[in-house]
Target: Elongator complex protein 6
Amino acid sequence: MDVFSHLNWYSGNVSEDGEPEKSIPSGKLILVSDTLESDGSFLIHYFLQSIFKSTSNSNSSGGNSSNRGGACLLGLNQSLFNYFNVGRKLGYNLTTENGKGNFTFINGLSTPYQWIKEQRVQQLEEQGIDEEPPLDSISQGFSPFPVIQLTSDKLNNNNSSSNSNSSELVDILKKIYQEFIDDHMKRMAKDPKSKTLFIIDSLNILSSYYSKNKSGSYMDIINFLQYFHTFVQDNSKTCSLVILFHSDCDEDTKFYNMLKYEADLTISISGLKSGYSKDIDGQIGFIEKDENNLTFKKINPIHYQALDNTIRFFHLGSRIQ
Model:
């Protein structure tokens, strides 16, 4: 089984032959919630694998164009090197997918650490060295293809006031939004029926980095998500947004509750209540929002096992715990 057919079956998204659609629900804001003990990043890789596999199958068979799509990933939690290596294990190559126009990577890790480059320049000047000696590819940073950098002049400003802090976050959120939209528009210009999955991994980095005024930062992020959510709904047939959030990294649960209320679908990753099992890593729960009456319903959870080169999903009770 797979996550999407499980979700679409309960949501009533079935094909003409009565089978559930094996694709990511379109026009949705999807919140993936995990904990430090049960990491949910494997779902990010699973989403990417599913997109590239369906797109490849569609192109090779010349069949259903609705299966074609791509992904735009904002990496705040892991480096491109990590996403690339996991992708190779799961059977896809990000360099190849980028060349096809199916994958875009926004590097959000470099922005907070811009001061490192400035410090290095100062060290070279003190040593009387005019030019940085050539470095090997690993030292230079892993760049198998051009990536988008999030940059802001204000990040080099040491002003610690809460207003300045909030302004920095708003500037970064605007930059993220614009890069996402530009990527979607380029893909739509190439193929009007293709779909784009926007991925933010992970939202905690934005909220924690700008934590001097937490309440203000939280509202800035919620406003950003509401604005983005409207765009996704207006383009419901061609895009969706997935957010990874570590729910136990902050004692303040108000922000997490606001995220769950804003999301159309919340996917929660947790450990097994029965304890350790060598065949099952944990449980995936689903809460879906009904936009018509703003009510929430639980969908039957499933079990999962994340292996080196694949991810398995099971109905509850189908494997011995």
The domain at 37-257 is CATH 3.40.50 (Rossmann fold). The longest strand covers residues 295-306. The radius of gyration is 21 Å. The chain is about 40% helix and 20% strand.
